[in-house]
Amino acid sequence: MEGVLLTGTATAALEGECVRCLEPIEDEILARLQELYVYPEQHTKAAEHDDRDLDDETSLLEDDLIDLEPLLRDAVVLALPFQPLCQDDCPGLCTECGARLADEPDHTHDAPIDPRWAGLEQLQQDPQD
Ligand SMILES: [Zn+2]
Ligand SMILES: [Zn+2]
Where does the record place the region Disordered (predicted)? Predict the structure, then answer.
């Protein structure tokens, strides 16, 4: 089948947030492109004879021009990380207070206080003098 085989790479700026700690992420991704664009006349001709491997997905040249947008969009979406992380071993957020653990590796809390005794903590924190 005659047409134009397009190959190439594209880079795209990526903006999002870490799925664990919600830290904003900016990155660049590289997407590889490869697609055969068929002349519309060839496509019609081939379809008359044999429509086995032709479907609506066939990319067509339009007046000798190629519309790159659908190809680019698909390639970039496929290259996107499924679960973007700010760093590979992002420890996420503290379940207790929401602090970002990557910023505070030694972050700890005292054992959670039984809500029935929480009032006592208040007393303890009051200045004594
Ligand atoms: Zn993170
Ligand atoms: Zn915490």
Answer: 104-129
Which range marks the domain in which residue 56 is found? Answer: 1-129
Ligand of minimum distance to the alpha carbon of 103: 1
Please give the distance, rounded to the nearest whole angstrom, from the Cα atom of residue 98 to the centre of ligand 1: 12
> Which residues neighbour 27 within 8 Å (Cβ) at sequence distance 6 or greater?
13, 14, 84
Overall average pLDDT of the 25-36 stretch: 92
Distance in Å, CA 24 to ligand 1 centroid: 8
Over residues 94-109, the mean pLDDT reads: 90
Is residue 35 very low, low, confident or very high in pLDDT (cuts 50, 70, 90)?
very high
Please state whether beta strands 24-38 and 3-17 pair in parallel, antiparallel, or not at all (unpaired): antiparallel
- Say what the pLDDT of residue 112 is: 64
Distance in Å, CA 92 to ligand 2 centroid = 11
Which ligand gives the minimal distance to the CA of 98?
2
